[in-house]
Amino acid sequence: MSDLRNYISQIMKTQELKTVKTEVSTKFEIAGITAKVDGSYAVLFENIKESNFRLVSNLVGTRKRFGVAVGGTEFNIHEKVISAIKTAKKPKIISSGKFMENKSKNLFSMPIVTHFEKESGPFITSSIAYVKNPETGKQNSSFHRLMPIDKTHFSIRMVEGRHLHRCFIDAKEHGEDLKIAITVGVHPAVSIAGAYQADWGKDEIDIANSLLGGKLTLAKLPFSKLNVPSGSEIVMEGKILQDKTHPEWMVEMLQTYDHKREQPVFELENLYFRNNPIFHDVLSGYSEHRLLMGMPIESKLNGELKKSFPQTKQVSMTNGGCNWLHAVVQIKKKSDSDPKKIIKKTFESHRSLKQVTIVDEDIDPNSADAVEYAMATRFQADKDLIILSKVRGSSLDPSSDQKKLQTAKMGIDATRSLSKRPEGFELAKIPKIDKINLKKYFK
């Protein structure tokens, strides 16, 4: 139960996946269909004009399917992810992967999707890169989008200071190209682990193995000598060239265009794929992208805040904040000083956050209406508002100073004041309302 096909079978049984047999194009059409069904269900495209491969999108576009991917439900995602991080264990290595069934030298055999009208080109958006840490010798896995340049070259997007970039700089300083491997089409647990930002020297693939109950197996590649999930649909290996760059710009998770960047170039050595392969496409800025990136951070925040502040009940990275820039923290307040302390800790735990709102335990942190109600009835701007100026923020935010990576942040204490009468904040309830069935009265 550790590859993409197993997961597709699972969500097919619960009618969470729909199949498109009509011929579709990689140029805007697949992106348009994916956007139209945003999150509602996963889509498997079986007839693609430009490729013989199949393509799947929206794999974890809802919390329900995300829960299935981590071996749980939408209600225990954080427990599953936090436990997997704590109990991460190395997968077994086997002699050969299923992806070795076919071999090619042409990147364009894949159905690489053109998503948005003003992007610099089509992009592979689900690609996970594997690299060996030069200091520890251990592997690291992380998400990096790829734009094709020709049949054997991609530009590869890297964030400065993150694992792959640090490995690339180390190789460059030693006058070497950096050997890497790339997978497309893996069990979503591998993608979720790859989106998690583990500490330097830690391998996210161990977290994926834990999420999959220790059933993940890896296979070694001949050129790079790196280990990748044996059930991967598509595997590429090659090297990031030390002395070449290529311009690109793309749509980010805020659904806005990033600025033009010169990015390093990946040169293909081998392309492997399974029989009747399934390519995975993630539509940037839509539900699957936001949940893939945001939910591991939400799990991290839940774990860290509950450990530091036991009065924390739940942390939610909001949909309106693109599951990245805004968080709502639900607490059982013990002291009027609690919210400001928790706001400070939340910002420290995820530096991309721009806004943190603290609410009481009777307010649903996943309901925008409920959170706004708390602000309307429990928040006073002159004493319950914290503003931080010129602090480190997200490079994605177009309203920030993107050159200096500086932004302004806001903390909101929307909890009841303990010095005021509690009845004034109590939400009125109607007895036995849950037992009323309207069909009995309206026929």
Secondary-structure map with pairings?
Layout: H1 4-13, E1 17-20, H2 29-36, E2 42-45, E3 54-57, H3 63-69, H4 77-86, E4 92-94, E5 102-104, E6 128-132, E7 139-143, E8 146-150, E9 153-156, H5 163-173, E10 178-184, H6 188-195, H7 204-211, E11 217-220, E12 227-229, E13 234-248, E14 261-273, E15 278-281, H8 287-308, E16 312-317, E17 326-331, H9 338-349, E18 355-360, H10 368-378, H11 381-384, E19 385-392, E20 406-413
Parallel strand pairs: 1-2, 3-15, 4-11, 17-18, 18-20
Antiparallel strand pairs: 2-3, 5-14, 6-7, 6-10, 8-9, 9-14, 10-13, 11-12, 13-14, 16-17, 19-20
Helix pairs in contact: 4-7, 4-8, 6-7, 6-8, 8-9
What can you see in these coordinates?
- There is one protein chain.
- This protein has helices at residues 4-13, 29-36, 63-69, 77-86, 163-173, 188-195, 204-211, 287-308, 338-349, 368-378, 381-384; strands at residues 17-20, 42-45, 54-57, 92-94, 102-104, 128-132, 139-143, 146-150, 153-156, 178-184, 217-220, 227-229, 234-248, 261-273, 278-281, 312-317, 326-331, 355-360, 385-392, 406-413.
- The chain is an alpha+beta fold and 443 residues long.
- The chain has 2 domains: 4-287, Pnp Oxidase, Chain A, CATH 2.30.110.10; 309-418, 3-Layer(aba) Sandwich (UbiD C-terminal domain-like), CATH 3.40.1670.10.
- Strands 5, 6, 7, 8, 9, 10, 13 and 14 form an 8-stranded antiparallel sheet that branches.
- Strand 11 and strand 12 (227-229) form a beta hairpin.
- Helix 6 (188-195) runs antiparallel to helix 7 (204-211), helix 6 (188-195) packs across helix 8 (287-308) and helix 8 crosses helix 9 (338-349).
